[in-house]
Every structure is written in structure tokens, then in C-alpha cells.
């Protein structure tokens, strides 16, 4: 129900923002307001809904200076490419998007460059083989760092010895590739007695996290720990572990990434051992950066989020009550 209400809210905001920002008004107000086109991935996780809400609320509160054109790509990179092309046609000042996967962006980003429209990558990156002059900056967490921190916590939780499985995010997404790299490289270099027995994608969704964990429990005799690439999959895995008659957080240690409120609640009740933060509250930085770019200023190539690590000893009811997402 909560998810339905938040989707409804997003749709209503999209419609109202679209209504006050049709193509003709864009052309006539382009040089007065900051016109930003944002192509969102979709609604795969609570984290993503929080990021969308943050961006849309910022725009709704600043209609005197900002005009937002928002597109929901429903997890399909082709839809993001179409949205980016429509933003170019509208003549927006800046384009921002969260790339679903790392690859396939050269052509459309070249079109942005030819149209002199700066591009901000949001929360995920693109393949390092792509000419980096095709985008202006990236505002995102350090996903390799997050994977490493998850590995360090996992090592301590299982006494540097045991069998771990990995619930991967969307295949081909930078958040998946880099979290996996950080985790796997740390384990390979420091934990000869930890075996990563399986890696399988749950596409960053709670339902798939539950289903994949259920099948991993059925096909592995013994699992000591699970590293989920995001909180939603970890929460799904917790359901599967309970359905298998085991205690999440005790019989099987669970570590994930994001730091959404429902994950903090699971940490407080002992079912999730740790969540490594990846903040979705990027709107202020996105719009500040877009204003600077519209103004012709130079910005850093990577604006890195300041994230934290939340283990059971750190999470309190006060922290949960203060969390907005
Ligand atoms: O790119 C960030 C990731 O995408 C978040 O960790 C995840 O929850 C989201 O879907």
C-alpha cells in the first residue's frame, strides 16, 4: 500500500510537472529558469523511490527557478535513451540520468555533446572504456568502497571462516559490478578461509531477493553469510531465511548496502547485521551542480557522497525516527 501511495505521488508529480513544463513553455523560459531533464531508472527499490521523491520535491519547492522534466524508464536503457533524446529536442539546459547499466551510451551522449548540453550521471556510472568527455560529472557513492566495507564486516561476523553467498543487483549496472568487485577483491586478498559459494542476481528487488535466497538455501548445505547488493534484496533474503526455519542475523549473517529506514529497523531487531549507506538524497547536489553548469562553471568529475556504515551497535530508535526514507 505504501509503495502504491508513493508511486501514485510520483505519477501525480510527474503529471503536474509535465503540465507546467510543456515544450513551448520550455523554449520560452529556457534562459530564465534552470531546465533539467532527468531520466530515472524506474522503481525497483525503496531507495530509488526515495531518490525520485527527493528530486521531485526539490523541483516542486523551487518552481520559480527550476523546471524539471522527469522520465521513468521502467528499468529499460532504451527508454532512457529515448528520454534523453526528447530532452535534447526540448533544448533543456542540463541532462541528468541514472544509467541502468554501464554500457551502450556512446551514441546518445555524443548527441548531447553535439548539442552542447552538459550531462550529469546520477548514482551509477558508465563503463570506463567510454570516452569520459561525453559526460560532465558524476554524483554518486563509491560503490567499490561499499563492497569492501561489507566484506570487512562479514569477515568479522563469521570469524573469518565460512561459506558466503552474494545477491547481486542488476546485471551490468555499475553499482552491481563495483560492489561485487569491492567485496570479492577484499575476500580474495584477506580471507582464504571464506568461500563465496554462489553469486546470483536479484535485480535489486525485494521479491527476487527472497526467491533467489530461497533457491540458494535449497541448493547449498550450509550458508554462514549473505551479502546483498542492496537493502531490498536483503529484506527479501531475510524472509526466505525465516521461511527456511533459520534465524537471520544469527544462523545466517546478513550484510547489505543502502541504509533505508526499513533496513535500519531490521538492524535494530537483529535480523540484518549491517547496512553500508549509499545516500539517495542527491537532489540538492544535482540542482546545485546543474545551476553551476548552466552558469558555465567547472565542477569536479566525480562528486562523491559521504556515506557511513551502520552495524547493530550504531543503529538506535532515534536514528530510525530521524530517517526520512
Ligand atoms: O545505484 C544505486 C542502487 O540502485 C541502490 O543501491 C539500489 O537500491 C538501487 O536500486
Describe this structure in words.
With 325 residues, this protein is an alpha/beta fold. It contains 12 helices and 12 strands. The chain has helices at residues 2-19, 23-29, 46-61, 77-90, 106-114, 143-157, 174-190, 206-219, 231-243, 261-268, 283-294, 317-322, and strands at 34-40, 66-72, 94-97, 119-122, 137-140, 162-168, 194-201, 225-228, 253-258, 274-277, 302-304, 309-311. The strands form 2 sheets. Strands 2-1-3-4-5-11 form a 6-stranded parallel β-sheet, with helices on both faces. Strands 7-6-8-9-10-12 form a 6-stranded mixed β-sheet, sandwiched between helices. Strand 6, helix 7 and strand 7 (194-201) form a beta-alpha-beta unit. Helix 3 (46-61) packs across helix 11, helix 6 (143-157) crosses helix 7 and helix 8 (206-219) packs across helix 9. The longest helix has 18 residues, at 2-19. It is elongated. 49% of the residues are buried. Residues 1-29 have low confidence and may be disordered. The structure holds alpha-L-arabinofuranose. Alpha-L-arabinofuranose (AHR) binds next to helix 3 and strand 9.
Primary descriptors:
single chain; alpha/beta; six-stranded parallel β-sheet; six-stranded mixed β-sheet; 12 helices; 12 strands; disordered N terminus
Describe what is shown at a glance.
By secondary structure, the protein is of the alpha/beta class. The protein contains twelve helices and twelve strands. Alpha-L-arabinofuranose binds next to α3 and β9.
- Output the radius of gyration: 20 Å
Helix content: 40-55%
Main pleated-sheet profile: 6 strands, parallel
Q: What is the string of SSEs from the N terminus onward?
A: HHEHEHEHEEHEHEHEHEHEHEEH
Which class do the helix and strand fractions yield? alpha/beta
The gross shape turns out to be: elongated
Total helices: the number is: 12
Task: Report the count of strand segments.
Answer: 12
Cα distance spanning the termini: 16 Å
Amino acid at each position: 500500500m505504501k509503495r502504491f501511495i508513493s508511486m501514485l505521488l510520483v505519477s501525480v508529480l510527474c503529471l503536474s510537472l509535465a503540465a507546467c513544463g510543456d515544450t513551448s513553455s520550455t523554449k520560452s523560459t529556457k534562459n530564465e529558469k534552470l531546465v533539467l531533464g532527468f531520466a530515472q531508472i524506474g522503481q525497483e527499490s525503496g531507495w530509488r523511490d526515495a531518490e525520485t521523491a527527493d528530486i521531485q520535491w526539490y523541483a516542486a519547492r523551487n518552481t520559480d527557478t527550476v523546471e524539471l522534466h522527469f522520465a521513468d524508464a521502467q528499468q529499460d536503457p532504451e527508454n532512457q535513451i529515448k528520454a534523453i533524446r526528447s530532452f535534447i529536442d526540448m533544448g533543456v539546459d542540463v541532462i541528468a540520468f541514472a544509467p541502468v547499466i554501464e554500457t551502450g551510451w556512446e551514441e546518445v551522449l555524443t548527441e548531447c555533446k553535439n548539442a552542447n548540453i552538459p550531462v550529469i550521471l546520477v548514482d551509477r556510472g558508465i563503463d570506463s572504456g567510454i570516452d569520459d568527455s561525453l559526460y560532465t560529472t558524476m554524483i554518486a557513492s563509491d560503490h567499490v568502497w561499499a563492497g569492501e566495507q561489507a566484506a570487512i564486516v562479514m569477515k568479522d561476523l563469521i570469524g573469518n571462516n565460512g561459506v558466503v553467498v552474494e545477491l547481486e543487483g542488476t546485471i551490468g549496472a555499475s553499482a552491481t559490478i563495483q560492489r561485487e568487485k569491492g567485496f570479492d577483491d577484499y575476500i580474495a586478498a584477506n580471507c582464504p578461509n571464506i568461500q563465496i559459494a554462489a553469486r546470483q542476481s536479484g535485480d535489486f528487488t525485494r521479491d527476487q531477493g527472497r526467491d533467489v535466497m530461497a533457491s540458494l538455501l535449497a541448493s547449498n548445505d550450509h550458508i554462514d553469510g549473505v551479502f546483498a547488493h542492496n537493502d531490498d534484496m536483503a529484506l527479501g533474503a531475510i524472509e526466505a531465511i525465516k521461511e527456511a526455519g533459520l534465524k537471520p542475523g544469527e544462523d545466517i549473517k546478513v550484510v547489505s548496502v543502502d541504509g533505508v529506514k526499513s533496513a535500519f529497523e531490521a538492524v535494530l531487531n537483529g535480523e540484518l547485521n549491517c547496512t553500508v549507506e549509499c545516500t539517495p538524497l542527491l537532489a540538492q547536489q544535482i540542482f546545485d551542480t546543474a545551476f553551476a553548469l548552466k552558469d558555465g562553471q567547472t565542477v569536479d568529475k566525480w562528486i562523491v557522497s559521504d556515506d557511513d556504515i551502520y552495524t547493530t551497535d550504531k543503529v538506535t530508535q532515534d536514528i530510525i525516527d530521524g530517517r526520512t526514507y
